[in-house]
Specification:
3-stranded antiparallel beta sheet, 7-stranded mixed beta sheet, Rossmann fold, NAD, 10 strands, CoA-bd, 220 residues, DNA binding, Arc Repressor Mutant, subunit A, 2 domains, alpha/beta, transcription
């Protein structure tokens, strides 16, 4: 496989690659072998011109008149996103949302694994809940190191998120997915993505109202 210079891929393009990969993987499971940018645009709601430009940063991925080979695109995007490399994930905040995420445990990607969960509630610390031993946030740095954690998912409420994220950053973790909508302060070398469920729901409702005749995935 080609050795891609990932630093030259624009950030906007990089953010869309998981969207492409997710939808292409679904198409592959349905037996679709090739696709054109117009078809992928209808599915992802990303303009076909943008898709072609995104793909151009990665070399010659398709052929004029033929389109793109679905399985080849999956291989390319998987390599770029390192989705073939096993990554251990920790969840901090083991309330209802944390439990739901843990129980899902990335069933579509065997290389993403939730290895441990953390909380500050003394009522659940030390207990095994839905198959997960609940560790104290006081032990985060040690446990994260022992279990080789690379990514943290935070479901901690906004009022406590900064303190929790500080503990995570102090442990050396540089990749965080935060379900609290309020921004937190982090060093420049740390990557963080915010998932605001209210915003996501409003976006979904907007597309449901205004794109009734388009069968598509709502863009992320």
């Amino acid at each position: 496989m080609k050795d891609y210079n990932k630093e030259k891929i624009p950030r906007a393009t990089a953010k869309r690659l998981p969207l492409y990969l997710r939808n292409l993987t679904i198409l592959d499971t349905k037996g679709m072998t090739r696709i054109k940018s117009k078809q992928l645009s209808e599915i992802t709601q990303v303009p076909s011109a943008t898709i072609r430009r995104d793909f151009s940063y990665l070399g010659e991925l398709g052929r004029s008149g033929y389109g793109y080979d679905v399985s080849y695109l999956i291989k390319v995007f998987s390599e770029i996103l390192d989705s073939e490399e096993k990554s251990c994930v920790a969840i901090i905040g083991f309330g209802n949302l944390g439990k739901a995420l843990a129980n899902n445990n990335f069933r579509r990607n065997k290389n993403l694994t939730i290895s441990c969960v953390f909380d500050i509630d003394p009522e659940i610390i030390g207990k095994t809940i839905t198959g997960f031993h609940v560790y104290s946030m006081d032990d985060f740095k040690q446990i994260a190191h022992e279990k080789n954690i690379r990514v943290v998912i935070s479901t901690v409420p906004s009022e406590n998120a900064q303190q929790a994220i500080d503990v995570v950053v102090d442990s050396g973790i540089t990749a965080i997915l935060n379900f609290a909508p309020d921004r937190v302060e982090i060093p420049k070398h740390v990557s963080i993505r915010y998932i605001d469920l209210t915003t996501e729901l409003l976006t979904l409702l907007f597309f449901d109202r205004h794109y009734k005749n388009t069968s598509s995935a709502v863009p992320s």
